[in-house]
Amino acid sequence: MNTLSELITKEMEQAFTAAGYDAKFAKVTVSNRPDLCEYQCNGAMAAAKTYKKAPIMIANDIVANLQDSECFAQVDAVNPGFINLKLKSSFVTAFLNEMAGDDTLGVEKEANPKTILIDYGGPNVAKPLHVGHLRSAIIGESVKRIMRFKGNDVTGDIHLGDWGYQMGLIITELEKRQPDLPYFDESFEGEYPKEAPFTIGELEEIYPTASGYAKEHEEYREKALQATYLLQNGHKGYRAIWKHIMNVSVTDLKKNYKNLNVEFDLWKGEADAQKYIPGMVEMLKEKGFAHVDEGALVVDVQEEGDKKEIPPCMILKSDGAALYDTTDLATLVEREELYKPDEVIYVVDKRQELHFVQVFRCAKKCGIVRPETGLKFLGFGTMNGKDGKPFKTREGGVMRLENLIREIDEEMYKKIMDNRTVEEEEARNTAKTVGLAAIKYGDLSNQASKDYVFDVDRFTSFEGNTGPYILYTIVRIKSILGKYQQDGGIIEDLKLQEATNESEKALMLEIAKFNEMINNVYAEIAPHKICAYIYDVANAFNKFYHETKILAEEDAQKKAGYIALLKLTKDVLETCIDLLGFEAPERM
Ligand code: ARG
């Protein structure tokens, strides 16, 4: 389906041509003065130079050619040459009825679907998930859903941090505590038992203990580094412990991400990329891309026209160890071999931007990816507390994801229980659903690259630009539709009717922007624009609701039209929140 702007632009093109002007000036956009008009065309201004005429004269010529248009109820030329447009209700209604009959509500699938891989989540195995990982998960999940909705073949990869120093720390601490385990012997060959020598609870305690201890004790740190090295170089016993750590952690991570309504197609990680490193290093040397600089193997990535210095990509340290650059490059080798993505999108803290600039340049320069492969860095800002500093617990420690979620759920639960008689269990479940919406909407309503303040009070409010407000609106619509059905009404296949008042028309115009909005969100990878849109829709709906008797309407056709409008509003809002990664409860 065309967007409403496209349809109106076509109508304007005809008018421009008929009046003797080039149709390229006919572009129409949503009005930025909603008090004056609904859509506007500024083409007369641009055409003025070409035709050496006053813009207002051109605008007048156009208006004269639009007198019996199917689209417009009112067309005005205003100084210095704007063309203000108000749409006919019949035109908007026909558009909405077509949209209501379409599976994807008028959104066209990508004409050339791409294979897209999204690298998001990025938790570090055995280290606690913190709020920094929350943003990646929330934004990445939404981006994945948006790309999919447009018909692309999308794979989400969690890209675990599962190959670092934390593993050496855990091995060292474990050896200290349980020296009798068979794994520590260099000659360990045997099968490792199914049962892990620790629970997730113990593992969560082992890492911070070991990490703290290593900071104070040189010898212990050396041991942990050595263990990391041995693990990475084939020590079979350590590898067995590593597998235990992975099994226990991944089970726990899956539970955590499920609670966030975040789902990955691939549970790969840094460890999977290791086997691609030797071949890649060989290639980089052989083709002359890499050279030795102060003992380290590096690839220059500085390009002409750079305003600042971009340091070389570090492939191997002087002791032969691989680095973060190496792993991300090897992961691209792996991805190219296994999935051949047209595009890879990284949803990572924006403070890692330089690393990705280096990796992307190196991958392109050395032919690790194809010249046409799109490598995109979607960097996000920091989640701050009300004091403007990175979000902390009340005691000043790093806020763990689980605790943050628990805090929000508690707050939601209290609000739901206030002045309401709800069963305990229902209230708890609703609090979870609404709490998740509060967190996700609070995050996604900000442009991803910006820092934002995580404000529990504001995010959990049922009023204002919040997740709970959006859900409340959906629940309100569901409740009206439910009553209509209880009275024997059938919702399916009802047709929208022409608007009879201002607030109804305003709502219809908002709904009609859906496919255009989605196209923009998709082109710009900008989930925050979905939030801005549904906030407008929710406001328009609530105004309409307060000014209109819906179920009490006596004119049956009019009432059916209202119900059809409500159903479409609900479908639009629910599609949008699904793209944001949350859902609405039945009641709240
Ligand atoms: N594990 C990393 C961290 O916690 C994020 C990984 C991002 N993805 C990547 N391909 N480097 O900072």
Automatic annotation (TrEMBL):
Molecular function per GO: arginine-tRNA ligase activity
Cellular localization per UniProt: Cytoplasm
Reaction it catalyzes: tRNA(Arg) + L-arginine + ATP = L-arginyl-tRNA(Arg) + AMP + diphosphate
A matching Pfam family: tRNA-synt_1d
Enzyme Commission number(s) from the entry: 6.1.1.19
Keyword Aminoacyl-tRNA synthetase applies: yes
UniProt domain DALR anticodon binding: residue ranges: 470-588
PROSITE patterns: AA_TRNA_LIGASE_I
InterPro entries (UniProt xref): aa-tRNA-synth_I_CS (IPR001412), Arg-tRNA-ligase (IPR001278), Arg-tRNA-synth_N (IPR005148), Arg-tRNA-synth_N_sf (IPR036695), ArgRS_core (IPR035684), DALR_anticod-bd (IPR008909), Rossmann-like_a/b/a_fold (IPR014729), tRNAsynth_Ia_anticodon-bd (IPR009080)
SUPFAM superfamilies listed in its UniProt record: Anticodon-binding domain of a subclass of class I aminoacyl-tRNA synthetases, Arginyl-tRNA synthetase (ArgRS), N-terminal 'additional' domain, Nucleotidylyl transferase
Residue window of motif 'HIGH' region: 123-133
Residue ranges occupied by any Arginyl tRNA synthetase N-terminal domain in the UniProt entry: 2-87
Keywords: Aminoacyl-tRNA synthetase, ATP-binding, Cytoplasm, Ligase, Nucleotide-binding, Protein biosynthesis
Family: Belongs to the class-I aminoacyl-tRNA synthetase family.
Assembly notes: Monomer.
Protein name per the record: Arginine--tRNA ligase
Source organism of this protein record: Ruminococcus hominis
